[in-house]
């Protein structure tokens, strides 16, 4: 198929995206070419996280993130800001500062305000809070939760909204695709926030299919529908699919991987609340899954290390065309 993924996505009202890292962006011409040709939205893989943007207290460093934003603007791509509050990528000065509740609230408020204001008007949506729940549906213990209490979540949304009222604001998490205690807890919690008029527009389903292939597409669909019932946009925000999840020959494994990518995009296209499908990296050359703790894989992306598209690349195009919104 001659048409690019990006053209088809644009003709069919879909944001097709990928996460992007600074080093390949500045060093690798092929990477830049494919990125601008095939995608119309990008998420900074790390460059906007706390540790990168505020490595010392109130001394902001936007160098890497600015480069990504500049590339997106030049190539008329949208940007998903990622992420304002997370238990990881917290710089040592925050982690080891032994701050009181009031101090930590001020630190978080200042961080969100300055970061969001810096990019005001250029960010389509922000992952405001990332991964705040455990598998069993309880709140995740983190510096934020343990010091401020669960209200850090709604504070973060309020502060982000004050800093850029036009950006869409998302809660983002993993292992929430199925109907399970985690997605149930997030549903009840976000419903409460919505009833309190906390500014929140959507939920991101990360879709890292890496440790467990047991994603049930009918349950993903049911989740999309119940969250859409709260008025939320329901997007795929970080998809990658390990090939080592299935048995047999490499061919068989790649076929299973394709089925998972395809099945998830199909559910997205069948729900108008799903407006974006963002890959966590488009080439095996730079995938984080190689270095990840726990399960590792060299081949989770839709392009291989030499930038050759796998069969799923054309498959995704067909699904976009066949399932208009
Ligand atoms: C990962 C990056 O891909 C790695 O480069 C980094 O070392 C750790 O973080 N969920 C998220 C992403 O929301 O920010 C994580 O990104 C992957 C899991």
Shape type: globular
The helix-strand sequence is HEHHEHHEHHEHHEHEEHEHEH
Strand order within the widest sheet? 1-2-3-4-5-6-8-9
Give the amount of beta strand, in percent. 15-25%
**Oligomeric grouping of the chains:** single chain
How would you characterize the largest beta sheet?
Answer: 8 strands, parallel, barrel
Q: Which residues form runs of ≥5 with pLDDT under 50?
A: none
Q: Which structural category fits the helices and strands?
A: alpha/beta
Detailed description of the structure:
The protein is of the alpha/beta class and 325 residues long. It has an eight-stranded parallel beta barrel, surrounded by six helices. The two termini are 21 Å apart. The mean pLDDT is 97. The site of (3S,4R)-3-hydroxy-2-oxopiperidin-4-yl beta-D-xylopyranoside (XIL) has 6 residues, from loops.
Descriptors for this entry?
single chain; 325 residues; alpha/beta; 8-stranded parallel β-barrel; 13 helices; 9 strands; globular; binds (3S,4R)-3-hydroxy-2-oxopiperidin-4-yl beta-D-xylopyranoside
SSE layout and pairings?
Elements: H1 5-11, E1 15-20, H2 22-27, H3 29-38, E2 41-44, H4 50-53, H5 63-74, E3 78-85, H6 92-95, H7 101-118, E4 125-130, H8 143-148, H9 152-163, E5 168-173, H10 181-195, E6 202-205, E7 208-209, H11 217-228, E8 233-241, H12 250-269, E9 276-279, H13 312-322
Helix pairs in contact: 7-9, 11-12, 12-13
The structure holds (3S,4R)-3-hydroxy-2-oxopiperidin-4-yl beta-D-xylopyranoside.
(3S,4R)-3-hydroxy-2-oxopiperidin-4-yl beta-D-xylopyranoside is lined by residues 45-46, 130, 206, 238, 288.
């Amino acid at each position: 198929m001659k048409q690019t993924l990006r053209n088809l996505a644009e003709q069919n009202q879909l944001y097709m995206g990928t996460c992007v890292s600074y080093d390949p962006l500045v060093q690798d011409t092929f990477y830049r070419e494919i990125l601008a040709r095939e995608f119309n939205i990008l998420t900074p893989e790390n460059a906007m996280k706390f540790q990168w943007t505020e490595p010392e207290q109130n001394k902001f460093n936007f160098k890497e993130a600015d480069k990504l934003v500049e590339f997106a603007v030049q190539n008329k791509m949208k940007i998903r800001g990622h992420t304002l509050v997370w238990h990881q990528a917290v710089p040592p000065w925050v982690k080891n500062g032994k701050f009181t509740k009031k101090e930590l609230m001020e630190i978080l408020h200042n961080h969100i305000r300055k970061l969001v204001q810096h990019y005001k008007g250029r960010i389509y949506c922000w992952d405001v809070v990332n991964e705040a729940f455990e598998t069993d549906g309880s709140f995740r213990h983190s510096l934020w939760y343990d010091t401020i209490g669960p209200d850090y979540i709604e504070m973060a949304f309020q502060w982000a909204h004050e800093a850029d009222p036009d950006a869409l604001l998302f809660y983002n998490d993993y292992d929430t695709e199925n109907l399970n205690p985690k997605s149930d807890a997030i549903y009840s919690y976000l419903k409460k926030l919505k009833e309190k008029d906390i500014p929140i527009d959507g939920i991101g389903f990360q879709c890292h299919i890496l440790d467990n292939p047991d994603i049930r597409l009918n349950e993903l669909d049911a989740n999309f529908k119940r969250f859409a019932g709260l008025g939320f946009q329901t997007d795929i925000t970080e998809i990658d699919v390990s090939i080592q999840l299935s048995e047999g020959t490499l061919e068989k494994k790649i076929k299973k991987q394709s089925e998972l990518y395809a099945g998830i995009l199909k559910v997205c296209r069948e729900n108008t609340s799903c407006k974006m499908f963002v890959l966590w990296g488009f080439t095996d050359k730079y995938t984080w899954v190689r270095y990840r703790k726990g399960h590792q894989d060299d081949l989770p992306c839709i392009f291989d290390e030499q930038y050759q598209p796998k069969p799923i690349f054309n498959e995704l195009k067909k699904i976009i065309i066949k399932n208009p919104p």
